[in-house]
Design goal:
single chain; alpha+beta; 2 domains; two-stranded antiparallel sheet; 10 strands; binds 2-{3-[(4-chloropyridin-2-yl)amino]phenoxy}-N-methylacetamide; Phenylalanyl-tRNA_Synthase; aa-tRNA-synth_II; EC 6.1.1.20; magnesium ion binding
Amino acid sequence: MTDTAALETLEQDVLAQIAAATDEAGLDAVRVGALGKKGSVSLMMRSLGGMSPEERQVMGPALNGLKDRLGSAIEARKAMLEAAALDLALASETIDVSLPVRPEPKGSIHPITQVMEELAVIFADMGFAVAEGSDVEDDFHNFTALNFPEGHPARDTQDTFFMKPDAEGQRKVLRTHTSPVQIRTMMSQTPPIRIIAPGRVYRCDWDQTHTPMFHQVEGLVIDRETHMGHLKGVLQDFLAAFFETDEVVTRFRPHHFPFTEPSAEMDVRYERVGQAVKVGSGDQWMEILGCGMVHPNVIRNCGLDPDEYQGFAFGMGVDRLAMLKYGAPDLRDFFNSDQRWLGHYGFSPLLQANMATGLS
Ligand code: 2NL
């Protein structure tokens, strides 16, 4: 029975099975059935031992040839099936790289953080650097260097959070303004100085308009010939940029701070448009910030000569700016961590404030 005609039939049979295999698993079953240890071709190879030398001389090469041809046919079919599977995957698994990230971002930027970013962007555009410092400060940097006299009401435990006395008996405070950052900058750098100091500040106060922790940004310019005109120009440009209007109408009202002389509060024109507040024009005045020329005592306390250097400083509440610009009615909502409130008043983390394409 082991003649070449039988081999011919087997070859046609296996080739038909190879052609009919539609996936790699099916094709591998065909390979095992023919060329595997107990496959039809392998069994025939094994029968070579029992043949006469004449028979073996014919059947040996014939079986080897069959084995090679079937092996090549299987390889060719395998390559074809792989290519087809890849084409199918490429056609059905397209990736649109322009889609937003998944899962979609759920977090949002808190309006106070947003306003802090906007302030940094506006003042950076005017050449100011951002300076930061510790929330826990000593009496010297928070009060004494700033020309607060002994016994000034702000130094009182009524207004200021005091820490427990340390090993040297010194009572540190939670900074009541970010001015200590500016004091430290004046003591460690030589003018010209142009910085803003944004950050958290603390005072014993808790009602509709006051929270014991709030946010402030202060600014400081120290140079040889700085004057009130520069102060007014910087603050007007700042307010116009922040409230995104062409011009703002402002006025200085005389005031008093221990650390500036002269001191002023700056008001801006505004009007109510329904619930919202429009800043820049209108017939009402609104107090927006405090400012002044840095007191000569403060300059001297920082190791600089007030006859050589002078400058201006200003300070304002970030939380109030955020309320005004984004129309949140109650300051206490800013600190409730309510997801629905944040969803409404928050900002996209993917949109960064910048002067070129807009602040908010
Ligand atoms: C306000 C008023 C102000 C300053 C802060 C300052 C800092 C140094 C020297 C002098 Cl180191 N002045 N800061 C000056 C004027 C006003 O803040 O109403 N803040 C909420």
